[in-house]
Amino acid sequence: MAGHTTQLDAKTLWGGKESPFQTSYGKLMMWFFLVSDALTFSGLLIAYGFTRHDAQDAWPIGEETFNSMPFLGHGYPLLYVALMTFILIVSSVTMVLAVEAGHRMDRKGVTKWMIATIIGGFFFVGSQAWEWSHFIHGSEFGKIELADGSQAIVKGHFGEIANFTVIEAGKHHKKGEIIKGDLMHEFQHAAEKGHLEGGNIRLADGSVAKINKAKDHEMKLIFKKSGSEHKIGAAAITGAAAEKMYYEALYSGEANRVVYGANMKQNEYGPQQYAQFFFFITGFHGFHVFSGVVINIIILLGVIAGTYHKRGHYEMVEKTGLYWHFVDLVWVFVFTFFYLI
Amino acid sequence: MERDDLIEYSLHNHHSEEQGKSIRKKIVQVTVLLTIITTVEVFLGAMIKQSSDAWAYVKWSFIVMTLVKAAYIVMVFMHLGDEKKALRNVILIPYAIFIAYLIFIGLWEATEVSEAWKTFGF
Fold first, then answer.
1. Is the pTM of this model over 0.90?
2. Which CATH fold would you assign to the domain A32-138+273-340?
3. Which A positions 11-70 lie with beta carbon below 8 A of chain B?
4. Residue by residue, what is the 3-state secondary structure of A17-63?
């Protein structure tokens, strides 16, 4: 960089004095580490590409899968992940400003920008935790298996469940009792187990209750697995026809007709490998972000203590900066190949 | 034995207030560019369906935009553009060759595996 004026000639270059890369040992080793880490991430993303390319069922589409915002509900395709990307880019910028301040031996500036970078990092990790939680819990409708063996994801606005009215007494509930509270969890659990039948729910204590639920709006079935009647790529079924098919399956009394969210065995979004790659790649990246934040905090403590100022240069900030930018770089690719394409 | 002929490269990276100003200006420019590209990507992703005819172009434009973003991050934010050419090449060339091969073989094999599934069933 600037200020380096050492004359290069054959004697100094190959006498073991001048390095051909003209960079310090620590920075060179950081670069080599980053190259190997980049190979790891590329390997993961290419494995994802391989699996997606040979998958026979329809692969999930980013804007359908990720369309929710915290506090606002759904209907915001890709906005949340765009916000996460923006946060990470901004924290990369504050990091490069910290490095620049270090080159001017401006200790206050380094401290300020390092703190900003760490805050950005925490925001990103927190956002990812929300994203994971949302991915695991899934949508209100879930993915449904229809009578012909086809599978469809369901979009729309789920009508709120007002209450359950007990029509057959069990161990805990008497006939005529009205059950209120957060019934969604109960409802989804019963749906997975096949405990919903003809508009009624069979509760854990053996009682049967009538479900009083508001009407759904704008329901839409999008086929993700072909059956004998419905094929992948067929036009989405909407309105009353969609509702009829959905509730026929939901109230069939059969287990495993609906899947909510994702776990290691099944998910509502598409082929099983999709969720596994999601967990592994975003998890591995999130782990990098987390360790990056920890390393940044350690370096910040060194900056505040004046360790690097005494040393005469802020190269430690530059090295941790390289790692932090790399984390941002990986996210740029994960964003494209997981969310956009 | 203490050696006084070794060069402390870490000390060479300092710059003046003046140089700092122009470096910061460049950082702001790159930030704006990265933000614009990301916004365009999200807009295209949300607007154009994968089933539409334009999707193939959109997909490739995503890949190009991603590579542009990556180049700016590596060259400006990570200062690789300011390093010696030898260092730049040592980092980029082996990586690029290996990954180009891995992408080729990954997608080629995936196509074959896909054909095999179709032919012989699950």
1. no
2. Four Helix Bundle (Hemerythrin (Met), subunit A) (1.20.120)
3. 17-24, 26-28, 31, 35, 38-39, 42-43, 46-47, 49-56, 61-63
4. CCCCCCCCHHHHHHHHHHHHHHHHHHHHHHHHHHHHHHCCCCCCCHH
